[in-house]
Structure formats: C-alpha cells, structure tokens
Inverse folding.
C-alpha cells in the first residue's frame, strides 16, 4: 500500500514585526522540497520525516514523498503568497500521489495573513482532495495551537511528548505505525479534543523526565497522566499540545487530544479528565516562579564557585520567533567589565564590518537591537576579531544542519561574542564548539533558548552546574501581561482572573 508523505512547519510569532515570505522558505535556512528531494534530505535522520520513512519501510508501506516546506528559525506572520503557495503545492502533491493513506508533519502554530489556522485549512483541502475514506494521520509539534476543526479532518493526531523535543523520530515512526494499523483494519481511531482556557508562552511548556521536570511540574504531571491513559488498550494515542502563546489567534492555547479505537465517548472522557487536571495545575505556569532579572542573574553566575552557568535568554528565544538580536544580557555583561562568558547575537551589519576587518583586527561595533524594538538598543562593543567561519552547524537532535550564514567571534575582555548573519538557537554545545568555544571551560554560557537547550547541555553532556532563566525583554518573554492580545479567546488564564 502507498502512503503520501509531506507537510509544512512554521511556528509563527505574531508579535514579530517582519512577515515571513515565500523567499524565506526558499532561502538558505529553509526547506522547499519536492518528491525525492524529501527522501534525500531526511532519509537516515532522526527527525519526524526520517521516522515516517523508516516506519513505512518497516510496515511494508510504500512512502510517496509529495511536498515539504520549513523555515527555521521562525519569524513573523506568513504572507498570503507564502501560505497559498505552500498549501497549493502540498494539496496538489497529495492529490497526485493517489495513495491509500496520507501522513503529514504539520507544526500546528502557523499563522498567515489570510488564515488564522493554516494547518486546519490544509487539512480541509487535503480531505476534499482525497475523499472521506482515505485515512489522514498527522504528527504535530508540542507547541501547536490546535483548533477543533483538526479532528473533523484527520483520523489520528499525534503530538511530540517532550520539551525539549527529543522524540521527533519516535513520533514519526508512531505516525507510520498508526497509519499501517488503520490500513490493516486493526484500529479505527477517533479523536476527542478539549481546550482548557490556558495560554502559555516560551519556557513554561516543559514536558520531560529530565531534572527540568522538578523545576516546572505542570506539563510533567500532565504528560505522566497521559502515559497512564495510553496503557488502556482501547487508546491509540494521547497527546497534549502546550500551545504557543506567542501567536495571537482564536485557537491559541493548550489542547488535549485523545485518540481512541472507535470509541469517541471514551476518548472524550479521558480528554475532559486531562483538561480538568491542567486547570488544577495552572498556577504552576506563572512566570514569577521561574524568571530572574538580568542583573541578578549575572551577579549570581559570577558569585557561584561552580561553573559553567547557563543563562537562558527568555525574551530573545529564537526558536519562539525572536530575531536573535536582543541586547539585555550583552549590556549586562559589559556593565560588569566583560567577564568570562560566551554568547551569540544575530547582526548582519556587524558581521559585514568584522569580515571586512579580518582576523586579528581591532573593531568598534554597535551590536544588536536592530530588528525588533523591544529587544533593546544596540550596544557599543570594542574588541578583537578571533575567528571567521561559514556558520554551518549540525543539530544534536534530528541531525539536520543549521545555517547561520557568515559568522565571526569578537573578544572583549574575557567575553567572546559570536556574531551571525542568521538567527540561531544554540540548543546544543556544538553551536559553540563550531566557533572554537568549549562550553565546559567558560564561566557563563548564554543561550537564546527557552528550554530546548536542556537536553543536549544538561541531560546528554551534563555541562552546566547551574541554569538561570533570565527575564529579558523581547517578543518571546513568557510574561503574557507584557503583550496586547486582540484575538485570543477570552477569558483565558493568566490574562483573566478565573479564580471563581
């Protein structure tokens, strides 16, 4: 039997002032893949599509690659042209495949100028293209904003179970396995959806068995109960989408999805149970429980006798949509005399200046603060150019490349500032090692990441002696009170007082 494979990924931060265009997807940091290009790009990788391919092969299903688009790191709202072109290519590819089933990888947090829930539009049009009898299975990102329309179009909806995301491949294989079971007549999944009135941003979405779970328990306890429910042989899959509070849309917020075998009442009962549990745990998502001011964080990092200390820049989280040029921590390091530290800043203008100067040159720069007004003002920096490189890094999870563009390392005092053309997430130590910086040897390591960095740094390599989540300005700050929401459904926690 034949399974059409495809999808598109975009995690849209609607507070980002710059739209994401068709050229962004087709550019050097995106994926714009047709047919066998999907196989050549993802075969043998540990990503979702790699899991699709391996899972189909194991189940003796013929994978038919159609179309796949992705633009990492994420940016602003998709232009209508970008979304329409993606939608048309994906739907046409699935229609042409004439397959027995469809297996899609959809992020779930996209927003377009002409669609508040683009993935729902894609699912509706795919369903119209293939008819009611061909099964559709979707694998989505944990940070998805899922509308109830999804369940009307897809037979099974499966989400990542971890944040940091370390189960891309496993969820891809699970999607292929569920597809095979449907085609063999072993299960007839139905999906129940609940949306408790909870909206979460950035680093408050953690769902993992790592030590992080002891710090932020709400998603951990939800995931634990979901795993228990999955032991019921009548249940196909239980997934919890934490949501993506950086997108101001009517479907923004947490979603509970329970896939049961031909028993919608059973699925609905479990979904309501998990929604009730999420509501009881909601106060664990308040930001004052986890965030530290910049000056306090740097002072604490310098005072501790055990290092490295990781400062996680919450407001400048590039994986959540920040342009990557926030300067709050950079300015804080300068204020204390450029201590032993390493950090990344995206700044195309400074990169051009440094490349023109060359290795060994002394440079005077105005760094950062050029893409997004809440990210801070440019910081005057004097330093020596230590390194120039092409900025190609292999991600620790999934194995796909991250392209940072032209990259330079400038040293001021004991601080190494890594300047890049494109945003980067620094989700693993390989980002620093690629520019000659060993994180184990530094007192302070700054990452522009809410929580995705924790698996590689903390679990795999056990590098940090302390992690401090820093309360920085920027469009990915977890504090929803700093933002004006016009489209989210109301009332919703924590924007509204729902204590009654």
């Amino acid at each position: 039997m034949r399974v059409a494979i495809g999808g598109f990924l975009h995690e849209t931060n609607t507070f980002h002032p710059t739209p994401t265009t068709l050229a962004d997807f087709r550019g050097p940091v995106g994926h714009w893949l047709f047919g066998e290009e999907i196989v050549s790009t993802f075969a043998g990788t540990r990503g979702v599509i790699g899991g699709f391919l391996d899972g189909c092969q194991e189940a003796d299903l013929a994978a038919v690659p159609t179309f796949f688009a992705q633009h990492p790191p994420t940016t602003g709202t998709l232009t209508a042209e970008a979304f329409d072109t993606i939608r048309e290519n994906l739907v046409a590819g699935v229609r042409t495949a004439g397959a027995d089933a469809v297996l899609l990888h959809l992020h779930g947090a996209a927003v377009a100028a002409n669609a508040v829930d683009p993935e729902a539009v894609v699912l509706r049009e795919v369903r119209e293209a293939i008819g009611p009898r061909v099964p559709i299975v979707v694998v989505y990102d944990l940070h998805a904003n899922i509308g109830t329309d999804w369940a009307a179009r897809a037979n099974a909806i499966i989400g990542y179970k971890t944040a940091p995301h370390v189960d891309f491949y496993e969820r891809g294989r699970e999607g292929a396995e569920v597809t095979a079971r449907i085609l063999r007549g072993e299960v007839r999944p139905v999906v129940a959806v609940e949306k408790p009135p909870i909206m979460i941003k950035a680093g408050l979405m953690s769902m993992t068995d790592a030590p992080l779970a002891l710090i932020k328990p709400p998603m951990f306890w939800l995931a634990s109960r979901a795993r228990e429910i999955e032991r019921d042989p009548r249940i196909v899959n239980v997934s919890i989408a934490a949501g993506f509070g950086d997108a101001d849309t009517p479907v923004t917020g947490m979603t509970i999805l329970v896939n049961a075998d031909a028993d919608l009442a059973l699925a609905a009962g479990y979904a309501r149970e998990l929604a009730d549990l999420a509501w009881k745990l909601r106060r664990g998502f308040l930001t004052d429980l986890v965030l530290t001011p910049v000056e306090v964080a740097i002072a604490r990092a310098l005072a501790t006798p055990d290092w490295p200390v990781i400062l996680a820049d919450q407001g400048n989280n590039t994986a959540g949509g920040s342009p990557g040029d926030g300067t709050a921590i950079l300015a804080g390091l300068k204020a204390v005399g450029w201590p032993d530290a390493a950090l990344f800043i995206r700044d195309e203008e400074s990169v051009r200046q440094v490349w023109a100067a060359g290795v060994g040159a002394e440079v005077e720069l105005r760094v950062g603060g050029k893409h997004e007004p809440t990210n801070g003002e440019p910081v005057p920096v004097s330093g020596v150019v230590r390194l120039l490189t092409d900025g190609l890094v292999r991600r620790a999870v999934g194995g796909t490349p991250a392209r940072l563009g032209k990259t330079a390392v400038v040293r001021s005092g004991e601080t190494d500032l890594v300047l890049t053309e494109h945003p980067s997430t620094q989700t693993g130590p390989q980002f620093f090692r690629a520019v000659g910086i060993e994180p184990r040897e530094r007192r302070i390591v700054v990452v522009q990441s809410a929580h995705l960095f924790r698996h590689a740094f903390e679990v795999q390599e056990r590098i940090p002696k302390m992690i401090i989540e820093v309360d920085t300005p920027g469009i990915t700050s977890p504090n929803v009170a700093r933002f004006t929401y016009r489209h989210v459904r109301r009332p919703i926690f924590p924007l509204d007082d729902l204590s009654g």
About this structure: The radius of gyration is 22 Å. The mean pLDDT is 92.
